[in-house]
Amino acid sequence: MNLHPLDTAIIVVYFILIWVLGFWKKSDTKIGVYILMGRRLSLPAFVMTLVSTWYGGILGVSEFSFSYGISNWIIFGVPYYVFGLAFAFFLAQRARLSQAETIPGLLRQNYGETSGKIGALWVFLLASPAPYLLTVAFLLQFFFGFGLITAMILGLVFSTLYILRGGLGAVVRTDMFQFLLMYLGFVTMAVIGWCTVGSFSQLKAMLPPEHLTLTGGHSFAYILVWFFIAMWTLVDPGFHQRVYATQDHKTARKGIILAVACWFVFDLLTTWTGLLARALLPDLSNPAQAFLELSAHILPVGIQGLFLLGIFATVMSTLDSTTLVTAQTLGYDILARLKRFGSHNPVHLTQIGMGLSLGLAFVMAVFMPSVVNLWYTLGTLILPGLLLPVITSLVPAFSVEKRYILSGMVLGPLVAGVWFSFAKVDSWQYLWQLEPFYPGIFISLLLWGIGMLNGHFKHTKSIHYN
């Protein structure tokens, strides 16, 4: 895409401002300040950083809303509201009062050192910045014509170096700015798009009928799968990190509820933009570029640059957040617990971990250059090993002996991985047409259920009657 020099200048200024905000203040050398801001995260900052880091897959939303209309809101919105509110009302207070610093730390508190090590491995892979690094690279490639490798390197430099200096504080400062850009960009598009089509009735006449149905032509079974995928919310490492960093548990609960309201508004804006793109650009060959092509089609010079900042902001805010999470997981939860590194400052180890995690993300993005495939593979294989351990750590009534949890943490992902591998050999035909996530989570649930029954029987046997 050939951008007007003014739009290019707006994007360049954006990157400069991100660096200024990111490098504005150096973090304390204490690990609790570096990764949790000393647990002083205020309500407004909590909401803005939580919302801005939730939309890194904006090109996927572009593709889905263009292709299937308002079902984008049902599939990529509603399930996340459900589990976001579930976290707010049932888990937020417990998570904040646990005084945990990370998900592996939470697991160590409840199920011992081994569970923390296994959990650290799963969190490290689940929170990989690879999908968001790849998305930033696609954007830079699309706008400025860079090669993919060059674009990924530039994305790494511009979105992560300031984290080395400022930790979570730097991430939150940039997230607050990017939160504003996200909404400003998409509200502008919504208003100009409305003026372009004239009225909703005219828009309706330009769209396929299924684009205005809640299912978008999909089956109930397909939609149900996305509710399972949305359970990611309950174990999202960035989500947990921000909850642990809040001033108190009331801030965490209120903040998540407000964040869900913000998600609702932003989902409406992105769905509306997808409908506009489908109506005005019906012959578009690549739906993933629908938002980008629509901006060139209807936005005037200068305003297009503003909208593109909203696109960049949604991705960049997620990239730096996942980078910090993987860095602290490798540096603080893994390296710092090895005898060899026991005397090192955990902050320095986290900074070293940042380089290693970004290197791995770079390799993953090179060998699997598909954002959707990266999400699918990571989520399918790892969620079965984290969901029950995290939830039962926060809800003692559901906890079982650690041997059952440890077995589930290993066997759940292992079964999902074997199921996934057989499909790859068999031209992507899953046994019984069953997604790998289901057998993986079934094994975890089975082991947990056995543990619950065993605990119940033990309790029953301990009761003596006169």
Commentary on this structure:
- The protein has 466 residues and is mainly α.
- It has a single domain (5-367), classed as Sodium/glucose cotransporter (Up-down Bundle).
- The protein is 76% helix and 0% strand.
- The protein has 21 helices and no strands.
- It starts with a helix and ends in a 5-residue tail after the last helix.
- Mean pLDDT is 89; it is low at 458-466.
Question: Could you outline the blueprint of secondary structure elements for this entry?
Answer:
Blueprint: H1 5-22, H2 31-36, H3 43-52, H4 58-68, H5 71-76, H6 78-97, H7 103-111, H8 113-126, H9 130-144, H10 148-197, H11 200-205, H12 220-229, H13 232-235, H14 237-245, H15 249-280, H16 290-298, H17 303-334, H18 346-367, H19 371-394, H20 402-425, H21 437-461
Short summary of the structure?
The chain is mostly helical and 466 residues long.
What is the architecture at the second tier of CATH?
Up-down Bundle
CATH overall fold name: Sodium/glucose cotransporter
How much of the polypeptide forms β-strand, as a percent range? under 5%
Average pLDDT, to the nearest integer? Answer: 89
Task: Write down the CATH class.
Answer: Mainly Alpha
Number of helices: 21
- H/E topology pattern: HHHHHHHHHHHHHHHHHHHHH
Overall number of structural domains: 1
Q: Indicate the structural class.
A: mainly alpha
Shape: globular
- CATH superfamily descriptor: Sodium/glucose cotransporter
CA radius of gyration is: 23 Å
- β-strand number: 0
Unreliable spans are 458-466
N→C terminal distance: 84 Å
Question: Helix proportion of residues, in percent?
Answer: over 70%
As an assembly, this protein is single chain
Taking the sheet with the most strands, its summary is: none
